[in-house]
Write a structure and sequence with these properties.
With 321 residues, this protein is an alpha/beta fold. The chain has 13 helices and 10 strands. The protein has 2 domains: 187 residues, 3-Layer(aba) Sandwich (D-Maltodextrin-Binding Protein, domain 2); 117 residues, 3-Layer(aba) Sandwich (D-Maltodextrin-Binding Protein, domain 2), CATH 3.40.190. The longest helix is centred in the N-terminal third of the chain and has 23 residues.
Length: 321
């Protein structure tokens, strides 16, 4: 009976302490790990979000880029961190794709993390170096089919949205284009701008300035509708690949075991931060759209995305390299 009383008292104290703990959170700097390279969409978005959260919560939010191994290195670091709300993961559909692409990971997304909040989503754009003779998507497909295995496309690593978009394009068009993974999206972009790699499917938010400057030629965007940032560029569906669609989205997760009160507080603050007029205006100019969900809704979204990509991977004629 005494043991039962002690257990009940402990539960009651925990219930009282949790909201108080959340009220005091954060009481010291919070680290946001970005498992991607500097200058890419995740890095840029994380820094904007960190500043907004710092302004709102009056504690430093520090962004650290930890790229490598298809985002596994940085993701594992967060999975092994204390579940106290002071180490967060800026993640994307890279992590949901990796659940089926990389069976040897040292973590499982929905086992080792808890969903906090999505942040934003944007379309991708397929670009080629100006030296490539194809001026339209149909011409590029014809060129690739006439020279199987001779054209290359760049990505920031296995499982990233750029890689998955490229493999989906190959599967839907029956083309043989060689995947050239890089350590970061910035490195991949540099290879295409320099002509070392012929093609890349990149985020509109980061590649649009290079398109406007004439450094690359845009063949198609990957959304259901034309991008407001590149309105003269047709969608892949319009340009000759019916039904093709690929996007990049970003979100925040925390190590499993993080107090629900802290998760709820972070989620609420992120949702408020990304809906600020200055933020939505900035993202609109870049081609990104805010995403708002509760932790439970984001958890459901993540699980569905894992299933979706597992199905897509099965359609590839060859396992992505």
């Amino acid at each position: 009976m005494k043991r039962l009383f002690r257990c009940a008292a402990a539960v009651a104290l925990a219930m009282i302490a949790a909201p108080a703990f959340a009220d005091n959170y954060p009481s010291r700097p919070v680290k946001i790990i970005v498992p991607f390279g500097a200058g890419g969409p995740a890095d840029v978005t994380a820094r904007l979000l960190a500043q907004a959260l710092q302004d709102r919560l009056k504690q430093p939010f520090v962004v650290e880029d930890k790229p490598g191994a298809g985002a596994v290195i940085g993701t594992v670091e967060v999975a092994r961190s204390a579940a106290d709300g002071y180490t967060l993961l800026m993640m994307s559909n890279t992590q949901t794709a990796n659940e089926s692409l990389l069976p040897q990971r040292n973590y499982e997304l929905m086992r080792d993390f808890v969903a906090v909040a999505p942040v934003n989503t944007s379309d991708l754009v397929m670009v080629v170096h100006p030296s490539v003779p194809a001026r339209t998507l149909k011409e590029f497909i014809a060129l690739a089919k006439s020279e199987p295995g001779k054209l290359n496309y760049a990505s920031s690593g296995v499982g990233t949205p750029y890689h998955m978009a490229g493999e989906l394009f190959k599967a839907m068009t029956g083309t043989d284009i060689v995947h050239v993974p890089h350590r970061s999206s910035g490195d991949a972009r540099t290879s295409v701008l320099g002509g070392q790699v012929q093609m890349m499917i990149d985020a509109v938010t980061t590649m649009a300035p290079n398109v406007s400057a004439g450094q690359v030629r845009a063949l198609a965007t990957t959304g259901k509708a034309r991008s407001s940032v590149l309105p003269d560029v047709p969608t892949a569906d319009e340009a000759g690949v019916p039904g093709y669609e690929a996007t990049i989205w970003l979100g925040v997760m925390a190590p499993k075991g993080t107090a629900q009160a802290i998760v709820d507080k972070l989620s609420a603050e992120i949702n408020l931060a990304i809906k600020q007029p200055e933020t939505t205006k900035l993202w609109a100019a870049q081609g990104a759209t805010p995403m708002t969900m509760s932790p439970a809704e984001f958890d459901k979204f993540l699980r569905a995305d894992i299933v979706k990509w597992a199905g897509v991977v099965k359609t590839f004629p060859n396992k992505p390299q």
